[in-house]
Design goal:
Largest sheet: none
Oligomer: single chain
CATH architecture of one domain: Up-down Bundle
CATH superfamily of one domain: 23S rRNA-intervening sequence
Helix content: over 70%
Order of helices and strands: HHHHH
Strand content: under 5%
Radius of gyration: 15 Å
């Protein structure tokens, strides 16, 4: 693993932004139809929201606000996993493309869950 990859793994602002970009790239490979169009809209919203809410958490004015924003990151990451699963159910041919994105989403969900638990424990 190269040093810049390792550094970006620990830079959550960069990692969540990169995740949003990956979500956008992923949906460009999803065939558009009456079933997938609503799923595409949902995953773009939730997948890009993770990074936006993390940026807001970093600028929070109180601990309560920080925990609230991190909680949104947890929920949006979990929701994004759901939409990935639904897109694969609608279009099984893109399962391979979805696997890496789903794994990253799972990791972000676990990371933000841990941050939330630690922040609440220090309350």
């Amino acid at each position: 693993m190269n040093e810049s990859k390792l550094k970006s793994d620990f830079d959550l602002e960069e990692r969540t932004s990169s995740f949003g970009v990956k979500v956008i790239s992923f949906v460009k490979n999803v065939p558009q139809n009456n079933i997938t169009n609503p799923l595409i809209n949902q995953i773009v919203r939730s997948g890009t929201s993770v990074g936006a809410n993390y940026c807001e958490a970093n600028e929070s004015v109180s601990k309560k606000d920080f925990i609230h924003r991190i909680s949104i990151c947890v929920k949006e990451a979990k929701e994004t996993k759901h939409w990935i699963r639904m897109i694969v159910a609608a279009e099984p041919k893109i399962r391979n493309l979805a696997e890496e994105l789903w794994q990253e989403c799972k990791e972000l969900h676990l990371i933000f869950g841990s941050i939330k638990r630690n922040a609440k424990a220090k309350d």
